[in-house]
Structures are given as structure tokens and as C-alpha cells.
Amino acid sequence: MILTGTEIGKRVKSGEITLEPFDNDLMNPNSYNYRLGDTLLEITDDVIDTKKPYTTSEIKIPNSGYILQPGKIYLGVTVEKIGSTKFVPSLIGRSSLGRLGLFLQITADLGHLGTSHHWTLELKCVQPLKVYPHMRIGQVSFWQPEGLSLLMNSYDKIGGNYSNYSAPKPSIISKFE
Amino acid sequence: MILTGPKIKEEVQNGNITISPFHDNQINPNSYDFRIGNKILVYKNEILDTRQDNPTEEIVIPDDGYVLQPNKLYLGHSVETVGSEKYVPIVRGKSSTGRVGIFIHITADLIDIGYVGQYTLMMHAVQPVRIYPNMRIGQVTFWKTLGDIVLYDGKYQKGNGPQSSQVYKDFDK
Predict the structure, then answer these.
(1) Domain containing A128 — which CATH number?
(2) Nearest to A89 by CA among A98, A97, A80
(3) Which of A8-12, A173-177, B77-81 shows the lowest per-residue confidence on average (mean pLDDT)?
(4) CA neighbor of A41 nearest in space, from A121, A97, A161
């Protein structure tokens, strides 16, 4: 079951969902809009080797905007800290951005139960697209799970790789066994 | 929880789901196939700006098809008017569409509860590919909700034909 906007608001108040900072204007009928932080990372290797670390460079998005180019993957970050101890988050882009050809999360929209953090965004555009810092760029929904939760609120302790970051976090794919 | 095909049909008959026109032979085990209409929008400019109203032009897909090119964005629309005030719809391409490298939505597969209209399809081809009007292109699923429902009353409500992005309106706020 997916939570309605009203229910998301209630669960933020009760502390079971984290959306920080929270603004009621960002609520949708069944999701909450998150905003784009002002830092992007781009991968500077011509060919990415999934067995090796790769190099990135940081881009600060100016208030006058930054043009994303096709054929590249950019890593962004949410302004908000997002997560839940009770519901499973699914994080995607807004239809208004999809209508401009921006993929937000290339394929992995599913969050881990029990962790709250600023989310690293995987951005890819079809045509060049100018984006601005702090614009409303995506939406997160929350789903009720069934079954026992795995060490509630301790994804970090069980080897969570990407929690507790407040800046875009590059892939650690080369460290997987 | 996701609705099964027979439950989708039942809820269409009960008026809790709108799918119009509705045909039994488009029901799947846990989704409903929708078709693509014959109108496509493309943006006139190559470089798009989230802060501007980006101008578009309309293309009519002829009966002998239209070739989608990579590196270009196309906005299509469903033939069907779809929506629900009780369930949350989620859309995606048919696997047959994905197997030839066509994306029919980009990032936003989640539809707001209370939106009722034709779906705008955000189309992107990995390789050049020819599409035809009225072909079955995607599927819609319906999901149960938890909590009090406030219906969608946003800028894309009652969409008819492809609707281009209105995200620039955010910046006036």
C-alpha cells in the first residue's frame, strides 16, 4: 500500500517519516516533492571501469542555472534528509521534469527501510537541459511493507554503503565482491 | 497492494477506476494495456530550460508510422482517458516496447490519485525505431492506498493530447 499525502504528513509529525526541512507546500496527493541541492558531480573518466575507482569533478550550480549535457551521468543530492523507520521510500523525478527529458534515478528508485539521509540523485538528460539550485525536481513516495524489518533503523550497522552523506556520493561498485 | 486484472475490470464497472475506451482484450493479469494516440509534441529548441516555457510543435503520426530518433525527446499521449479517485496508478512501457529500446516514461511513473485524463508519454528511443498510431505501448497498474485521500487538482488535470512541461510556473512562486 502506498501512503497518501495526508498520511505522509501525519507520519512526519509522529516521527516515523523523516523529511527535513518539511514544507507543506511540497505535498502531493500521494508523494512529496524534494529539491535539488546546489552541488553536482560528473565522472571525468572517458570509460568507466566498474572494477576500479573513477575520478569525479564537482560542479557548483550557479543561481543563473547550469546546462546538463546528454551522454553524461551527473550525481546530484537532495536538499532534504529523507527516510523512514516504518515505510519503504521510492524516489523518482517529477513528471514536469520527465516532460523535459530528465531521468532522475537511472534505475534504482527503491530506498532502504530504516535509513534517513540526503539522497544521491542520478541525473541523465535526453536533450541539453538547464537546471537551477533548490528547484523542485523530484518526488518521493512511501510504501507499507509486510514482514519483520531487518534491524530497524540500523542499515548502517548491517553494511549500508550510502547512508549518512550530505553530498553526492559516487558509486562504490568497484568494492563489491 | 496491486490490483489484479479482473479486479481492475470490476473497479472500472463500479466507477472507481476510469479507463475509456475500455476493452476486455487489453486486460493483463495485473495491469491494463494502453495504446498510443496519433499526436506527438517535440520541443523546437535543442537546449531546454526548466525556467522557460519551451515552445513545441505537433507531429501527427501517419498510419505508416513515424521513426523516433535517439537524442531527441518526444511527448506522446494515451488513446485512453485513465484515472482513479480510489487507487494510485503507476504506468510503464510494455516489455515488448522495452525490448526494442523505447522508453515511454522518463522518471515519473507515479500518477497522482484523482488525475483523470489521457496520459502524456515521455518518449525516448535508444536506437531509431518506427512506431504506429493506436499500437499498444504501455501498461497501467493500480495500487491501494493508506490514509485519507486528497484528490489531485494540479496543472495537468484532464489532459487531452500530449501536455508539455509547465515546471517554469514553479519559479513564479
Answers:
(1) 2.70.40.10
(2) A80
(3) A173-177
(4) A121
For residue A156, give Cα distances in angstroms to A150, A151, A159, B18, B28: 11, 10, 5, 44, 40
Catalytic residue among A7, A20, A80, A122: A122
Residues of chain A contacting B1 with CB distance shorter than 8 Å: 1
Nearest Cβ partner of B170 from A90, A130, A136? Answer: A136
A122 catalytic? Reply is yes
Residue A157 counted as domain residue: no
Question: Quick one: pLDDT at residue A175?
Answer: 78
- Provide ipTM, 2 decimals: 0.93
Domain contains A33: yes
| In-domain check, residue A75 | yes
Q: What is the average pLDDT score of chain B?
A: 96
The owner of cell 485512453 is: B80
Q: What was the pLDDT predicted at A167?
A: 79
Q: What was the pLDDT predicted at B172?
A: 72
